Amino acid sequence: MKKIPLLPRYFQWIGLIMLLLMIPYKIYQDSISGIRINTFVVYNDTPLQESGLFEIMEVDIGFTLFLLIGLLGLTFIAFSKTKVEDEMIQSIRLYSWSWAILIMIGLGVLITLSIYGMTFVSFALLFGHILLLLFIIIFRLNYYRLNKGGKQNEE
User: Fold this and answer.
1) From CA 130, how far away is CA 71, in angstroms rounded?
2) 69-81: pLDDT as tens digits
3) In the chain, which end has fewer C-beta atoms inside a 10 angstrom radius, N or C?
């Protein structure tokens, strides 16, 4: 079976630290949200402003950092190696990805049919985060069951 390119195992810890960094942001959200920087934007469609393509714009970077740190943290956890990487673990990874994608499609259909307006946009921003989180949960549960079953067979 072909090897899946994965990050080294210590990236799990880096991802966990990144996720834990999101907690202080949520606590101090009001003081962090005032951080404004000039950045390059591909498309500016801010309400009450002139829209434009490829321009420099002053933006509030707090929420962007929150989403970026969360996405990178979950990605590092999802794509890092386990202690033992063999064909069984790769099979569990594939199974977990399949179920995570199926659940996200179902959730996407449900949200599309039942939620409208800016709340829908908020959910759409988090689809990648939810997909990675579902994969991590399903993979860890199956990995735990595999390890638990292996220990019982040894006794």
Assistant:
1) 10
2) 999 999 999 999 9
3) C
Cα distance between residue 108 and residue 127, in whole Å = 8
DSSP string for residues in 24-73: HHHHTHHHHTT-EEEEEEEEE--TTS--EEEEEEEEE-HHHHHHHHHHHH
HSE-CB at 106 with a 13 A cutoff on CA atoms is 7
Contact 145, 96 (CB under 8 A): no
Residue 26 burial by CB count (10 A; 0-12/13-18/19+): exposed, middle or buried? exposed
Helix/strand/coil for 7? strand
The model's pLDDT over 5-53, given as tens digits with 9 standing for 90+, comes to 898 999 999 999 999 988 887 777 766 666 788 888 888 777 777 777 8
Packing angle between helix 62-78 and helix 11-27, nearest 10 degrees?
Answer: 150
**Token pair for 125:** 């921003």
Stated pTM of the model: 0.81
**Residue length of the chain:** 155
111: CB partners within 8 A, 6+ apart: 120, 123
